[in-house]
Amino acid sequence: REGGPREDQLPTGTPLPKDKEAAAKVLMKGLMDRGFTKIEAAAIVGNLWAESRFDPKAVNPKSRAYGLMQWLDGRKDKLDELARDKGKSIDDVDLQLDYIAWELKGGDPYETSQFQKAMAYGDSVALKAKGFGYEVERASDRELEDSMDDRIGAAQSAYSLAEGGGNNTAVTNRGEDPSVNYRSPSASASMKPDTA
């Protein structure tokens, strides 16, 4: 699935609506606080826009996919488990950001591998957003083709809106090395880091 258009053939992207910029900033900060680089966070946020319009309660009427990333099946079951373990609502934005970080930063080896493939699509925000759509979201080719303009445009907008100028390093307030896999400190036993 890595085929498709080269960067010079990608859509230019439709920028985020002005009334969604504040939400994009919150999501960017939340992801960067969890160890994602600015460009990784932007690629994710662009896809969240295309998938859910930043609505943590979004439900796909056909597939029943849920939340910011439109999780299904086993992935959604793990989100449900995390919500129960933390005593939070499944539609809590911070919970969903914790889950994204857990899933993509080592908690789920398959999803972590898919995320790494996605980020290897290229150096630009556009190519990383494309990669995230194909490798992590894994929507149909038709759906991805139809939504790529939104994914790329929102990712580019999010990148421009984020604090930190043009730097491409992770920002964290946890005193962690961002290269270390993120684990939510109060996640369930199956999601907890090794503390040895």
Number of beta-strand segments: 0
Largest β sheet strand count, sense and barrel closure? none
Structural category is mainly alpha
Label the overall shape. Answer: globular
Instruction: Give the percentage of residues in beta strands.
Output: under 5%
* Strand and helix order: HHHHHHH
With helices defined by DSSP (H or I, 4 residues minimum), what is the helix count? 7
Give the termini distance in whole angstroms. Answer: 39 Å
Determine Rg (CA atoms, Å).
Answer: 16 Å
Fraction of residues in H or I helices: 40-55%
The whole-number mean of residue pLDDT values reads: 83
Poorly predicted ranges (pLDDT <50, ≥5 residues)?
Answer: 165-196
Tags for this model:
196 residues, 7 helices
Describe the structure in your own words.
- The chain is mostly helical and 196 residues long.
- It contains seven helices and no strands.
- The longest helix is centred in the last third of the chain and has 21 residues.
- The termini are far apart.
- The C terminus is likely disordered.
Which helices and strands, and how do they pair?
Blueprint: H1 21-33, H2 38-52, H3 73-86, H4 93-107, H5 109-119, H6 125-137, H7 141-161
Question: What's the quick description here?
Answer:
52% of the residues lie in helices and 0% in strands.
